[in-house]
Amino acid sequence: MSRIGRLPVALPAGVEVEIKGSYLRVKGPKGQMEHMFPTEMKISKEGKEIVVQRPSDDRSHRALHGMTRALINNMVIGVSTGFERVLEINGVGYRAEVSGKNLVLYVGFSHPVTVEPPVGISFEADAKTRQVKIKGYNKQLVGQIAADIRKIRPPEPYKGKGIKYIEERLRHKAGKTGKV
């Protein structure tokens, strides 16, 4: 069996699950998510756990087994505690601020760049540490919004100016050498 797929998904307090065949709806304090999974996978609730079973040891079924369990686990974690990505802004005069719900970035362009959050996403900007936090209950959406913000001004390899993930390590290049 799949090492990930065979693990049951524990349901924390305050999370409600509705299963109808391969359709799953998860509701919690942070929000509500629903997803239609492949019909081959059998999803069932046993006590305070969700169990995913596969019909055979076929290669495609093994792959779907682990993926289905991982997606269900992300849904449960998202509606109970939520997900967060942290971006760091480096550069002289570069900064970010939250205006209403929107994120406004000042990153060296002639105009400020405004990013509007989709439903379920919120922004926090800290002026002292120059960090932007993207929070939400959908892991895929949080990661995609973080990638889109990073794409506005990716870090350059010489001075490291730009927007990068907090855990990202940049390899700096040496600049031009002067005449001796």
Task: Summarize the entry for a quick read.
The protein contains 2 helices and 13 strands.
**Whole-number tally of structural domains:** 2
β-strand number: 13
Task: Indicate the structural class.
Answer: alpha+beta
Rg estimate, integer Å: 21 Å
Low-confidence runs of at least 5 consecutive residues: none
Q: Strand content of the residues, in percent? A: 35-45%
What strand order characterises the main sheet?
Answer: 11-12-7-13
The chain-level mean pLDDT equals 93
User: In CATH, what is the homologous superfamily of the largest domain?
Assistant: Ribosomal protein L6
Q: How many alpha or pi helices?
A: 2
H and E string: EEEEEEHEEEEEEHE
By oligomeric state, this entry counts as single chain
Identify the CATH architecture of the largest domain: Alpha-Beta Complex
Net shape: elongated
Helical content band: 10-25%
The largest sheet, given as strand count, sense and whether it forms a barrel, is:
4 strands, antiparallel
CATH class of the largest domain: Alpha Beta
Find the CATH topology of the largest domain. Answer: Outer Surface Protein A, domain 3
Whole-Å distance between the termini? Answer: 65 Å
Question: What's the layout of helices and strands?
Answer:
Layout: E1 9-10, E2 16-20, E3 23-27, E4 32-36, E5 42-46, E6 49-53, H1 59-80, E7 83-90, E8 95-99, E9 102-106, E10 113-115, E11 121-126, E12 131-136, H2 139-152, E13 162-165
Antiparallel strand pairs: 1-6, 2-3, 3-4, 5-6, 7-12, 7-13, 8-9, 9-10, 11-12
